[in-house]
Amino acid sequence: MVVINTRSTHSFRSFLPLYTPHRAVSTRPFRAVLTLPSLGGEKGKRAASPAPGAAGLPSGSRTSVPPSASATPRTGARAGPAAGAAPPSAMAALRKKLVVVGAGACGKTSLLVVFSRDHFPEEYVPTVFENYVADVEVDGRRVELALWDTAGQEEHDRLRPLSYPDTDVVLLCFAISSPDSLENVPAKWAPEVRHFCPGVPLVLVGNKKDLRNDAGTRRVLAAWKQEPVRPEAGRDVASRIGAFGYLECSAKTKEGVREVFEMATRAALHARRGKKSGLPKTANRKSPCYSV
Asked: Which domains does the chain have, with CATH numbers?
């Protein structure tokens, strides 16, 4: 079984008052216990039985817990065990950090909220920093996966690098409904991540898959002589930037959300950090590229 226990931690808005979002977002701490199907053997085959909940995503229970006193999420601040939670002895032994980056309004926060809370946020609120933690057990290996959300707006370009230190895997997101957001991946986001996180694996994620065939979206894009991003275009960019993999998902329908974090967890487990392997920062190690 793959057991995921998610909880929220500090927001950094109070720490960085000069970079306040347009609207405050509630960061009330919570704890939810999610159970996903087994990922299977070495090739990542999943069990045939689907997980309970909409679109294969499990529903979770929630109880309040106090946030950690430090900026880095730790395992010490936990409430009592919820139903189905792993015992304390089975809690995560490895710690991995996942950072989500990409253009503003491309669906980064919705992806995290749906994964951690099984709830789609209908209203868009620009993000500064939001953090969640998922205790993941996959193939007998226990991982505490810290999920870091970031803001994609240009006014936060100087703030965003504060989230990069000690990152183990990066989800580089774009919106399938926005071809411009995909063009920005090799032009801006991949170089930024490679600069601040040398040797760290990237997973390219196409969000808002449900809008690919949406009539309204296609009509708006057609007025600008554009169309929604095709799967082959995403795969091509993933290959160009040397991504570990390429996946598409929809936070609204929950299609593909679980698979994104399964791939990210495996990338974090299997990757060898550049600073640990002794490779230079400019090294470009090729990794397997899985695609939709």
From this structure: 95-277 (3.40.50.300)
Q: Which two tokens stand for residue 213?
A: 């065939």
- pLDDT, one tens digit per residue, over 203-224 is 999 999 999 999 999 999 999 9
Whether 178 contacts 220, CB under 8 Å:
no
Start-to-end Cα distance in the chain: 24
* Residue 203: its H or E element: strand 202-207
* Cβ neighbours of residue 133 closer than 8 Å, sequence gap 6 or more: 6, 7, 8, 9, 73, 144, 145, 146, 147
**Tens of pLDDT along 39-88?**
444 444 443 444 444 445 543 333 333 333 334 443 333 333 444 555 54
Distance CA 177, CA 171 (A): 18
Looking at this protein, which amino acid is placed at residue 125?
V
CA 67/CA 7 separation, integer angstroms: 9
d(CA 176, CA 207): 6
Tokens representing 73? 């999420």
- Answer whether 99's CB lies under 8 Å from 171's CB: yes
Which long-range CB contacts under 8 A does 217-220 form with residues at least 24 apart? 217/177
Q: How far apart are CA 195 and CA 189, in angstroms?
A: 10
